[in-house]
User: What shape does this take?
Amino acid sequence: MVINLSDNHSLVSNWISQLRDIEVQNDRMRFRKNLENIAEVCAYEISKKLPWVEKEIATPLGISNCKVLEHQPVLATIMRAGLAMHNGFLNYFDKADNAFISAYRKHNPDGSFEISLDYISCPEMENRVVIISDPMLATGASLVKTLQFIRDAGNPSEIHIACALACTVGIEYVLRAEPSATIWCGDIDDELTAKGYIVPGLGDAGDLAYGAKVQM
Assistant: This one.
């Protein structure tokens, strides 16, 4: 399943427009905040799909039967670009367990690249709801490799993927590898360059949020 949050106009569309805007991109704090805002909307929407239980809550004047999350999810993020979105999810799922994955493009002299995944730190994943945040779903290669590592660590009951911007090619690639996953997007673009960048896209989310990096 794929949910494009820009199908219906909302504040998400405004935040996406600012992420794309080369003038607004000069403000790194605004860029990170917009990613965080989009993640908070995703967290709210995903929460509607999670299992709940009834719990008796004592108030100063009596007992209230409330609905609460049955289990806390695992919030996973692909460093470094995913950190701003991860903070947005933590604002809402403040008791969640967390997983961190280091996945990046290792560029070759001919312009091609490979996905290098050097580090993963995660809690117990077996039969857990896992929410993975990564701002850009371009080719989908990083996400598929991340999902393989998560499957090796345990067998989640549900996988939700949240990104600010996705490309149709990447979405199709991820869903072929993980057909039961749900992908939540701030918006979707159709074009991908030969070097794996989304068009019109917004550029390199990691660089825009945290500063330019040296190509390795």
In short: The first helix runs from residue 11 to 20. The mean pLDDT is 89. Residues 109 and 216 are 11 Å apart (CA to CA).
